[in-house]
Design goal:
By secondary structure, the chain is an alpha+beta fold. The protein has seven helices and nine strands. It folds into four domains: 1-33; 34-112, Antifreeze-like/N-acetylneuraminic acid synthase C-terminal domain (Type Iii Antifreeze Protein Isoform Hplc 12), CATH 3.90.1210; 114-241, no CATH class; 249-332, no CATH class. The longest helix has 31 residues, at 3-33.
């Protein structure tokens, strides 16, 4: 074979090899960018992901989908989901949407609390949660029952909050897989403003809270109901008008004990006075004669009368209890 033919064959093989490598590199680049043949990369869940769970390679992966099937707002790049968690439960095969992701670095329930809002818990029982029918996301009203200032009325009820969202049941943000009959909630958490949170705690201190479930889309307000703010203002006015117990009569326990001791001392004084009154102030004289015995009473002189009375009282008067005197001095001390 001539040298010229060998050189031509070598050049042809080299050009073919270069062309093959170029095509292969171009295909590889297109596949990595998901742009070949109208396909794109999209993030898909590979397992069931509860709310608040960070997204990792263990529960999500990128897949090649036709571009026309990828919805707007889907996660298409790794940096779009790094250090983020989902706000709602996601199932295997579901596309991860940016709108369902929490803020970067925020996981758990805190990621779902809107700015300027608060989450506050209210104690409940199965009857208040409609036997498990109230779930996170439901809308409820909150009422309070309390003892009326008018004793003839007894118990009254007032509206505390209306149309507030249930944030969680106990410590669960997602109860989709639980049987409602098995949910025995002890607390529900409500999403409220800071002012509503303070109003709710004030109502809890004043009486017993109750929760009523609202219908979906029902945003009506109760205009005829007794409002808690009016009730709270009335109670505060009553508290301001009522003097503290210590300012009027002193310590209740000390006052009661001191009154008891004073009564005991008064009874003893009355007893002494009665004894003094009952002490004899005359002298009986028995006179015997032929006609028989005659008894006459002769009034004693004033000096001898006082001496006899003092002697009789001293003999019969009980000894004073030193403990009563000590307790009275202690209770009267400032």
């Amino acid at each position: 074979m001539k040298v010229k033919s060998v050189l031509l064959m070598a050049v042809a093989l080299g050009c073919g090899l270069v062309a093959m490598l170029g095509v292969q590199q171009a295909l590889s680049s297109n596949q990595s960018n998901g742009s070949d043949d109208g396909f794109g990369m999209v993030l898909v869940a590979t397992a069931e992901i509860p709310p608040g769970t960070p997204l990792t390679d263990d529960n999500v992966k990128f897949e090649r989908w036709p571009k026309e099937t990828i919805p707007p707002g889907a996660v298409t790049k790794p940096e779009e989901y790094e250090q983020r968690a989902l706000r709602v439960r996601t199932f295997p095969g579901e596309i991860i949407m940016k709108a369902k992701l929490g803020a970067k670095g925020e996981f758990g329930a805190a990621a779902d609390i809107p700015k300027g809002m608060r989450v506050i818990s209210v104690p409940v029982d199965p009857t208040m949660t409609n036997s498990g029918l109230i779930w996170p996301g439901c809308r409820v009203d909150v009422f309070v029952t309390y003892k009326s200032m008018d004793r003839r009325i007894g118990t009254e009820i007032a509206t505390v909050l209306e149309d507030v969202e249930v944030f969680a049941i106990d410590n669960n943000r997602d109860v989709a897989e639980q049987d409602p009959s098995e949910i025995k909630a002890k607390t529900i958490s409500l999403l409220v403003t800071p002012e509503e949170a303070m109003r709710l705690k004030r109502a809890e201190e004043m009486g017993h809270l109750h929760v009523a479930m609202r219908g979906s889309g029902d945003d009506t307000r109760i205009h005829t109901a007794l409002r808690f703010d009016d009730v709270n203002a009335a109670f505060q006015h009553m508290d301001a008008a009522t003097p503290p117990p210590d300012s009027a009569s002193g310590n209740a326990v000390g006052s009661g004990l001191l009154s008891f001791l004073n009564r005991q001392a008064g009874n003893a004084a009355d007893s002494d006075q009665e004894e003094e009154e009952e002490t004899t102030s005359t002298w009986k004289i028995h006179i015997y004669s032929a006609s028989g015995e005659r008894v006459e009473e002769v009034e004693l002189p004033e000096a001898e009368q006082h001496a006899a009375a003092s002697a009789a009282v001293s003999a019969e008067r009980p000894v004073k209890n030193p403990l009563l005197g000590y307790l009275k001095r202690v209770l009267k001390a400032p």
